[in-house]
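queue> pop job 88
queue> type: inverse folding (structure -> sequence)
queue> payload:
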């Protein structure tokens, strides 16, 4: 078994850009299934060996931000600004998901689906927004089953995956974290 982390940015995080799009995403977000603030961004994260170091988590990330392209690159996350949920995968599923994520690198942001997501689901796979990228990767390459509506918003994805994952780290306060 190998571990992939589903990483999310909370709406109250300092790393989140202040923009009309993020305000809109917060406004249309479904209610959270736990006591954490709404999440507005999601990424796949393949942790490195000994990935937890101080207040950072290191490994390879696959994600996309508004107007950008999918990236698959080494990255360090601040444990203060991100929420981490761990999903155990069979080695074959992990390898298939990682290969799929790498193959998405360079694909564009799907503005049309992002804007229309609150109204209806789309099945476009030549371009992505964050929660659709993560959800489709899990759906097509692992044992995870998700509906289109569960991939339409990072909070919907978080809620759908909540019972299937476990916390990788949980915040105690703004400056201290505990490994779970």
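queue> result:
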């Amino acid at each position: 078994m190998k571990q992939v982390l589903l990483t999310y940015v909370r709406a109250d995080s300092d790393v989140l850009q202040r923009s009309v799009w993020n305000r809109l995403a917060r406004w249309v977000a479904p209610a959270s299934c736990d006591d954490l603030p709404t999440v507005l961004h999601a990424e796949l994260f393949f942790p490195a060996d000994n990935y937890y170091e101080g207040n950072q988590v290191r490994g390879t990330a696959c994600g996309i931000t508004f107007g950008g392209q999918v990236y698959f690159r080494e990255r360090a996350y601040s444990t203060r600004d991100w929420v981490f949920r761990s999903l155990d995968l069979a080695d074959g599923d992990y390898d298939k998901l990682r290969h799929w994520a790498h193959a998405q690198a360079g694909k564009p942001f799907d503005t049309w689906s992002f804007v229309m997501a609150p109204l209806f689901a789309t099945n476009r796979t030549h371009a992505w927004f964050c929660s659709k990228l993560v959800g489709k990767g899990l759906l097509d390459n692992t044992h995870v089953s998700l509906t289109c509506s569960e991939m339409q918003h990072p909070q919907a994805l978080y809620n759908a995956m909540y019972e299937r994952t476990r916390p990788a780290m949980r915040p105690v306060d703004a400056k201290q974290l505990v490994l779970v």
